[in-house]
Automatic annotation (TrEMBL):
Pfam families: CofD (PF01933). Belongs to the gluconeogenesis factor family. It is found in: Cytoplasm. It comes from the Bacteria. This is Putative gluconeogenesis factor. One of its GO terms (biological process) is regulation of cell shape. It comes from Leuconostoc carnosum (strain JB16). InterPro entries: CofD (IPR002882), CofD-like_dom_sf (IPR038136), Gluconeogen_factor (IPR010119).
Length: 324
């Protein structure tokens, strides 16, 4: 029997499910590596109350990769009413993940048990078994800690790094994460926030080392829109430059970039208040970094926002996989 090609996708936030949903329908072995540095919203509250790995990004990936009755995923994603005091705005799935973490002693085992319960096709690996703290130094040389604080600062970031919860504690990757990267046929970064969803995984030292030595084809899915402060005026090549810099060498082989125009009057910038302008393409600057730019119409206009078309991205990834 021919082994399924192994694809590892790295990120967090709401971007990954867009391409995970079409990918899991294909005959591939998919592994999602998910950030554990989130400290906002329901995830942040649970992290502070009971000191667990923030569950929000993990919950979204579990739902995206599951094959269960839709009523189960609907319950997982349900948020309590704002009038419900302690439970206000908590997602039910976050509470379930928190309970499973206590039952099994760590987030990694908790997610594996939940993955079986939800009939997940593939693997979901928190990048670390412990909650991590994201730090950023901005271009003005000020420093902030905490994913929510960094996002809301709306300042241009120079670089980021992660630490453990305790002062001086070195971040440790889950061994399965490193093994998945080393055995992969393809590594996919994003889509998602560069500095707060993708890079918090990449800068875990064991992860960046594995990314430098893996023989897998490495693909970056460039964002469609820039983020306020964080990546204002960034081209696809500048996103790539930051990614390679945090990995420690030029490892990315392909950059998938959208060249379809986002209409000025379509996006609701109040609803999607973190985004700024459409990302511009710079093929020459991409190729200088040793990567091949794949430009095309990968745009999906919906819900007053600009998103990746998951099916088109999936087809492009399969095409790259077949060429390598």
């Amino acid at each position: 029997m021919i082994n399924k090609p192994k694809i590892v996708i790295i990120g967090g936030g709401s971007g990954l499910p867009v391409i995970i949903k079409p990918l899991i329908k294909k005959n591939i072995d998919l592994t999602a590596i998910v950030t554990v540095a989130d400290d906002g919203g329901s995830s942040g509250l649970l992290r502070n109350y009971i000191n667990i790995v923030p569950p929000g990004d993990i919950r979204n990936i579990l739902v995206a990769m599951s094959h269960v009755d839709p009523s189960i995923t609907e319950v997982m994603q349900y948020r309590f009413n704002a009038k419900d005091d302690f439970f206000a705005k908590h997602a039910v799935g976050n509470l379930i993940i928190a309970a499973m973490t206590e039952m099994h002693g760590n987030i990694f085992d908790a997610v594996q048990h939940l993955a079986r319960f939800m009939h997940v096709h593939g693997q979901i690996y928190p990048v670390s078994n412990e909650p991590l703290i994201l730090h950023a130094e901005f271009k003005d040389r000020t420093v902030l800690a905490g994913e929510a604080e960094i996002t809301h600062a709306h300042k241009t970031i120079d670089h980021v790094w992660v630490t453990g919860d305790e002062p001086g504690e070195e971040p440790k990757a889950a061994p399965e994460v490193v093994e998945a990267i080393l055995n992969a046929d393809m590594i996919v970064y994003g889509p998602g926030s560069l500095f707060t969803s993708i890079l918090p995984n990449v800068v875990v030292p064991e992860v960046s080392e594995a990314l430098r030595i893996t023989t897998a084809a490495q693909v970056y899915i460039a964002n469609i829109m820039t983020q306020k402060g964080e990546t204002d005026a960034y081209t696809d090549a500048q996103h790539l430059l930051a990614l390679n810099a945090h990995i420690g060498q030029q490892t990315i082989d392909y950059v998938i970039s959208n060249n379809a125009v986002v209409p000025n009057d379509f996006v609701d910038f109040q609803k999607w208040d973190e985004i700024s302008n459409q990302v511009k393409l710079d093929k020459a600057a991409v190729e200088v970094q040793g990567a091949h730019q794949i430009a095309g119409d990968f745009l999906s206009l919906r819900d007053a926002g600009a998103f990746h078309d998951g099916e088109k991205i999936m087809n492009q990834l399969i095409k790259i996989l077949e060429q390598n």
